[in-house]
Amino acid sequence: MPPESLWIPVTIWAAFAQTLRNAAQRSLTEALGTLGATLVRFLYGLPFAALWLWLVHAAGGLEIPAPTLRFGAWVVIGAVAQIVATALLLRVMAERNFALGVAYSKTEIIQVAVFGLVFIGDPVSAVAAIAIVLGTLGVLLLSPADKARPWRALLAGWTSRTALIGLGSGAAFALSAVGYRGAALALDGAPFLVAAAFTLLVAQTIQTVLLGGWLAVRSPAVIGRVFRAWRPSLFAGFMGAAASAGWFTAMAIEPVAHVRTLGLVELVFSAIVSRRFFRERMTRREWAGMLLLVAGVVIITLKR
Question: 200 with 52: CB under 8 angstroms?
Fold first, then answer.
């Protein structure tokens, strides 16, 4: 497979690994709280990120790149934006009409295409734009603010406080993804595999220090619970690092809007799990959303 096409299986792997990570984190949230479970993703993923960089360096014979000021700026933007995005999403969930805010946060894919074009010059072709719009519409139908009137609720409520926080969360997630791609591209001359692995390790270190430090000051008891839950946390950390390694590698090869659009295949995996293991049936609206999502995924995959 040519290197320029490698992003497709790598993205699918990242989406699959993220599905497993989410399941593992969900089981930890009750004991550790949302922020504690989020810290698990960074803290326990850090050793695996370091191991991945070492394997790329030792087994692949690739030199670890020297960080530049431009790389540092982009990776800090990506790491901090991801924490802000998570915090805003948690804030949305605390709002009375959280479903509306969550729906608006799903506009991340459109926002990431705009940010990628503006900040790092990633092109958005007409075909890619169609795939992005179809994927976004599919996601909105799968998780509507109002199941009875999904489009009316979305259009009527866009100026509400909850919707604006949701848009802010989507924008921060989009900026985070663009930041990580910008960081990998800033390592001029470094092969994409080692550039992605190095970016991942630095980003997770920053996030562990920032979020861990904040919790140590504000909620030190959570830190103790995180360390005591090390056994189940190791799997969540491993799958989180595996998913992130996939995302970072794919984004080092391909424009981030394409990667995030194909990454919607994660929702297909989730639907299969729900139907297979929980015997949950999909409504006509959900089937329509899934078809739009799959159409977007197929178009972005075959765009060449």
Answer: yes
Q: Name, in order, each residue with C-beta under 8 angstroms of 162's C-beta and a sequence gap of 6 or more.
A: 92, 95, 96, 97, 98, 100, 101
Q: Given this model, what pLDDT does residue 238 score? A: 94
Nearest by Cα to 297 from 132, 83, 166: 132
In the block, tokens 């670890």 appear at 64
With the C-alpha atoms ordered 284, 288, 293, 294, is the resulting torsion angle positive or negative?
Answer: positive
Alpha-carbon distance of 68 to 220, in angstroms, equals 34
Cα 257 → chain centroid: 12
Mind listing the pLDDT tens digit for each residue in 205-258?
A: 999 999 999 999 999 999 999 999 998 899 989 998 999 999 999 999 999 999
Is the Cα dihedral 196, 200, 201, 202 positive or negative? positive
- Sign of the torsion angle spanned by Cα atoms 115, 116, 117, 119: positive
pTM of the model: 0.87
